[in-house]
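Format notes (please read before filing issues)

Several people have asked whether sequences and structure tokens are stored in separate files. They are not. Every record keeps both together, in the order shown below: the sequence lines, then the token lines. Line labels are part of the format and must not be stripped during preprocessing.
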Amino acid sequence: MISFVPSSLRPLAQHAAQDLTRRTGRRVLLALLSVVLFSVSFAAITYYDLQSQVEIIDVATMVGTDRPSRADGEQGVDDSYEGRAVNILVMGSDTRAGSNNVDGSEGSEDVAVARSDTAMIMHLSADRSRIEVVSIPRDTLVDIPSCTLPDGSETDPQYDTMFNSAFATGAGESTAPEAVAAGAACTIKTVEQMTGIFIDEYMVVDFAGLSTMVDALGGVRVYVDEEINDPDYTGLVLEPGCYLMGGSTAVSYARVRHGVGGDASDLNRIGRQQNLMAAMLRTAQQKNLLTSAPDLYSFARSALATLTTSPGIGSLPTLAGLAQSIAAIGMDNVRFVTMPYMAAPFDENRVVPSGEAQAVWDALINDTPVPDESVTVQGDGSTPSSMDGTGSGEEGTGSPEQPGQPEDPGAAAPTEDPAAACYDLSK
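Then the structure lines:
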């Protein structure tokens, strides 16, 4: 009987076997090379994808050269902040134009103007042991120096003008990147003139961006310490308690002025803005974003798309290095301060820096802790005067978009700080 042997199973001649060995080796090499190239290409694409989200605009020429000195006397460290304190001016743009019309406001001239009703100096100590965040009330009367507009022209100096006018002076009614950068530059010049503090970097984030960042974190837990009843403006109605807030709720919480506290002034909501920022920092730290590549990428892509920044902090390697250097800072070493102020002598609806404000500016200039009496809240949710436990707050539940009602007021022990209980994710 004749049997047929498949050619693939037939013995090979010696030279044929050598050819197969060479071909197999080339295929393996090509496969490995392909993997390497794919990995490099993916990394490059990912980097480009993230970097392309950032609107980076250098405002150095608009800020000018008549500026305070850096604390270390250096003129800058390329792509590195190691060994020196850093001051970052964080501005919230409150225009309601386009996607930022998060509350249904009509695009009137007032709400379409690119203003900044939120401004915070974030100070990172040189040894990366602490972070201080100083809020400057928008109603502060300041002198605004001459500012450079996007077309290169100069504005006239202004005197005894509301602080938030600085951003509008530079940006005008435009929300184009160049206008936002001009608004940031004018605000930087105003802050430096008022405080004597050198601003190293800046960030501008808008309403839509804030909402996206909170959602990218999976919502943030916020303790609401007083009733909020504002159905007409923000639509926010909350009882005191602990809530998991999603993006839209968080924006409303940061903006609400009516139906809460004593009056509808901007001063009344600064504490809530600080509370929300602290909650975001806590959540990012608790989620260990730096150790989870997928989560870090998701958050970075969402966050970076919302920012207009200076070149230094807008560079991904620099931003990543800075983030890693502060990752180990405990939330009890993150402190929020509202600029000490007093009523303006000739306008009771406006404020001016009080004598205690200079001590805060000096602390940031000299890279020393701000005076304890100026601290309004710490990053872990505690306050310098620590609550005595007579409060009633209690763990609550909610969805990322719509907060739920707080649970039974008896859920928290009477001696336990309800805010601390809210922020303790181990419970």
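For reference, the curators noted about this record: The chain has three domains: 19-52, 56-214+313-383, 218-268+276-286+386-427. Residues 218-268+276-286+386-427 form one domain.
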